[in-house]
Amino acid sequence: MDILISGASVAGPALALYLNRSGHRVTVVERAPALREGGYSVDFRGEAHMAVLRALGILADVEHHQTHMGDMSYVNESGKKMASVPGDLFAGDVEILRGDLARILYDATKDRTEYVFGDSITSLAQDADGVTVTFERGASRRFDLVVGADGLHSNVRSLAFDAPESAVTSYLGLYCAVFTLDNYLGLDHTGQLYSTPGKTVGIYSARNNTEAKAMFYFGSPPLDHDRRDVTRQKELLAEAYRGVGWETPTLLRKMWQADDFYFDSTSQVHLDSWSRGRVVLIGDAACCPSPLSGMGTGLALVGAHVLAGELAAANGDHRTAFARYEQEVRAYATGCQKSAVGVSKFMVPENRLMAWFMNQNYKIMPYLPWKGVIAKSVRKTASAITLKDYGLSRPAGTAPRPRPSGRAS
Questions:
Q1: How many Å apart are CA 64 and CA 207, to the nearest integer?
Q2: What's the CA gap between 322 and 276, in Å, rounded?
């Protein structure tokens, strides 16, 4: 089949890699002008996550690029260490920068997948035989299936599903921002976090200490702003952290030079169904658990594994495949979403008493018998699905048929 995927971050290329092995012709359209290689660290833990990395054939590459992060330290305004958070609480079995993972998946698919950067879908018209897709820049084309792997603010979802974004998303009370900067503190596979009521800011080393990532979480009512106006987003972050101490003023100054600035709400997506006819959603577009869960990337890869596998098992019958895909993944996605509820109170303390209480707990955590309870709970959630072997762990041996020259219309 000819399959269009919207979104070239993680879920889309992962699905493309599986679909290539089934012999499908895959096109990935991405609004950004090039592959987006910025972003925060993402981790994988438990057998389900590791099984998908092995099935995709990228586990060795992921391990080669892993962060090897150690403990994170909470510090006071003067930079004095107050408490530590064990590295495995954040890093799981293997942790990698989102941008590095995106590059690995792109490199694994670029020779057998058509990537169209700098364009996006403007309309979808379904009929009994396929979907006519129009684009902002390119000519309209016909596809057998369309997949929305385009994140929390999915364009495909808004076009194909009869519901505005506000009706299918729930805001968890925090905004987050991440960007790359120089490792000016000389951090060695570690990071520092500073919390004040309503706000947490941090910096951690990345890419073998050659750079660093700045991270911000702050409580706020929903903000009315243009999601594509990066300058305004930086202004909002600077306004939210005006007067906050520690390294915050330096981080904000360096923010203005960052070309990979990411800013968004911590929100979840809840849909009654993940498909409409020949259109289906995966990853954050279907069931975003929010960055607070630490499960979004693993959930995206699991979804890609199951969707591609069910399409293969159903011999391309999309109605059967879409139904089975959702049946297999929905309970798992719900568990991932539940894991994020309540995390905001620990990520960003509401008041000074809460901040003090958190620091005391982190100080004594290494000496308590239940020190691994949180990490075990997260691992249990990540492993709460038994994946089928769909036979897609090996390349199909034959390349997909050449793309017909007359597909554009």
A1: 11
A2: 9
Count the alpha carbons within 13 Å of 269 in the hemisphere toward its beta carbon: 26
Give phi and psi for 52, each to the nearest 5. Answer: -70, -40
Of 85, 100, 80, nearest in space to 38 by CA: 100
* CA-based nearest residue to 18, from 401, 404, 400: 400
Q: Is residue 127 exposed (0-12), middle (13-18) or buried (19+ Cβ within 10 Å)?
A: exposed
Encode pLDDT of 332-386 as tens digits: 999 999 888 767 667 787 777 777 777 676 666 666 655 566 667 777 888 899 9
* Amino acid at the residue 66: Q
Contact 10, 175 (CB under 8 A): no
CA 364, CA 357: separation in Å to the nearest integer? 11
Rounded to whole angstroms, the Cα distance separating 193 from 304 reads 34
Q: How far is residue 220's CA from residue 203's CA, in Å, rounded to a whole number?
A: 21
Tokens of 362: 């982190």
Q: Residue 217 is encoded by which pair of tokens?
A: 């979480």
pLDDT tens, position by position, 305-322: 999 999 999 998 999 999
Distance CA 331, CA 144 (A): 28
Domains by residue range for the chain, with CATH = 2-382 (3.50.50.60)
pTM for the full predicted model: 0.90
Matching residue, tokens 């139904």: 323
Task: For strands 72-75 and 191-196, give the pairing.
Answer: parallel
**Distance between CA 142 and CA 318 in Å, rounded?**
16
β-pairing, 121-126 vs 131-135, is antiparallel
d(CA 305, CA 388): 9
